[in-house]
Design brief:
The protein is α/β, with parallel strands linked by helices. 45% of the residues lie in helices and 19% in strands. The chain has 2 domains: 34-125 and 252-320, 3-Layer(aba) Sandwich (D-Maltodextrin-Binding Protein, domain 2); 127-225, Periplasmic binding protein-like II (D-Maltodextrin-Binding Protein, domain 2, 3-Layer(aba) Sandwich), CATH 3.40.190.10.
């Protein structure tokens, strides 16, 4: 009996050792470049934040981190590409709150943010800022609300795509003030910003990093920002709450995801490397300079956050009546 027990114990120890060996990340990972798919056009907040963090991750892992822009369908084209990629840690997705919105906005999607991906890290969040072309007469949010009500759908607001946070913020503002501004979607915030400066559209509820430099240069006029406090970069711009619209508190977040099925040790290694990259003082300073609030959490915190966001945005989409179908 004792002999059998000892044999069983040895077998169990061997199984544990084998499991432990399998649980360790490959010693040579990564042995080649890692690709971050950014599902929006170059130059927008998603793209810029991915490049800032990606460079530091590359320094830590000793392999290049390459950004590949695959814009279209409000981020869905790039998301599908990563969902179908090999789950080996070499192709990851830079997703945003837009992807949480898409889960409800689209009746049919070729992927599920909560089932087809594993969250690695939430890099940063950013407030939205209501900016207008300098030719617009409004000087604050209340004047803009009055103008929007008076002009109806003759007043346009741009966004980086149907269902983005900037789109839903505009629709929310319409609902709050009783306006009917016309939504004009673009394939990314940078493209929308170009037409806003050119006067083809009049307003935008933009991710702050996308428009900060243009605001500082006087090419766009800021009227209000989301969040509980004014931004250090724009100390003279009031919050929506200060302006009389406390319901306007939308923010965008930007996180990195791997395909579902990526081995847990690789997920852990990538997650830790990304968190360390965001914690780097130079990265922190650059993100804050852009108008973003660094986060840099790990998989264990980010995964449940994503599920909560899908639910939260789903309720907002249903209330707004927005749809992409």
């Amino acid at each position: 009996m004792n002999t059998l027990l000892r044999a069983s114990a040895l077998a169990a120890l061997a199984a544990c050792a084998l499991a432990t060996a399998h649980a360790q990340a490959p010693a040579d990972f990564p042995s080649r470049p890692i690709k971050i798919i950014v599902p929006f056009a170059a130059g927008g907040a998603t793209d810029v934040i991915a490049r800032v963090v990606g460079q530091k991750v590359a320094d830590q892992l000793g392999q290049p981190v390459v950004v590949d822009n695959k814009a279209g369908a409000n981020g869905n084209i790039g998301a599908v590409a990563v969902a179908r990629a090999a789950p080996d840690g070499y192709t990851i997705l830079m997703a945003t709150s837009s992807h949480a919105i898409n889960a409800t906005l689209y009746k049919k999607l070729d992927y599920s943010l909560t089932k087809d991906f594993v969250g690695l890290s939430n890099l940063a969040s950013v407030p939205l800022v209501l900016v207008v072309n300098p030719g617009v007469s409004a000087r604050n949010a209340a004047e803009f609300a009055a103008l929007a009500k008076a002009q109806g759908d003759k007043l346009n607001f741009a966004s980086g795509g149907t269902g983005t946070a900037s789109h839903l913020a505009g629709e929310q503002f319409n609902t709050i003030v009783g306006a009917r501004m016309l939504h004009v979607p673009y394939k990314g915030g940078a493209v929308a910003q170009t037409d806003l400066i050119g006067g083809q559209v009049q307003a935008m509820f933009a991710n702050l990093p996308e428009v900060l430099s243009q605001v500082q240069a006087g090419k766009l006029r800021p009227l209000a920002v989301t969040g509980k406090a004014r931004r250090p970069n724009l100390p003279n711009v009031p919050t929506f709450a200060e302006s009389g619209y406390p319901q306007m508190d939308t923010r965008s977040w930007f996180g990195l995801f791997a395909p579902a099925g990526t081995p847990a040790p690789i997920v852990a290694k990538l997650s830790a490397s990304i968190a360390q990259a965001v914690a780097d003082p130079a990265v922190q300073a650059r993100l804050k300079e852009l108008g973003a609030d660094p986060i840099g959490d790990r998989h264990e915190a980010f995964q449940p956050f994503v599920a909560q966001e899908v639910t939260r945005w789903g309720a907002l989409v249903e209330r707004s009546g927005a749809t992409a179908d």
